[in-house]
Protein: Pyridoxal 5'-phosphate synthase subunit PdxT
Organism: Salinithrix halophila
Amino acid sequence: MKVGVLALQGAVREHIRMLEATGVEAVSVKRREQLNDLDGLVIPGGESTTISKMMGKYDLMEPIREMGQRGVPLFGTCAGLILLAERIEGVENAHLGLLDITVRRNAFGRQRESFEAPLMIDGVAEDFEAVFIRAPQITEAGARAEILCTVDDRIVVVRQGHLLGASFHPELTDDSRLHAHFVEMVKEAKSAHTV
Ligand code: GLN
């Protein structure tokens, strides 16, 4: 099993380390051809408009969207969550437009640009220490998206079948449980396709 980490911006090595901690092979991905043999892909945080432009420039937007439509598991964190969303407040066009949610960028306000919070994530952890950095908030989860976690009544983790999104940076701690959850999704998708 091989899981890629989109390596255009963000904490790529940290995501790779987390995935490896769960026992899968993890590779950094920059080129379109590399997408072909992946069983799953992580889209890290950074700055969503910059990552989106680079995805366009390197011809990655359409093939990643197709992967998502085909049922290959995708995990977006922070800016990666914004890239997955179908709707972004104040913006006409979404990026990948796969996840049935509305997001608000930089939603946690100036005074809280960066903070840590212990989270209860359904089916994942009861005490997940999460790092939020200029984080987006999920302001609406549509019927297809299942809410896995809220903080102060704001939605911060959702799952929609083979798609997982978190507003924080799960790669910046030593806790690999959310990555392990994603790897389980990758295993499920793979066995569903090979049976
Ligand atoms: N604020 C960034 C954006 O809107 C996301 C921040 C992050 O990924 N840490 O794209």
Notes: DSSP finds five helices and twelve strands in the chain. The chain has one domain: 2-194. The radius of gyration is 15 Å. Residues 177-194 form the longest helix (18 residues).
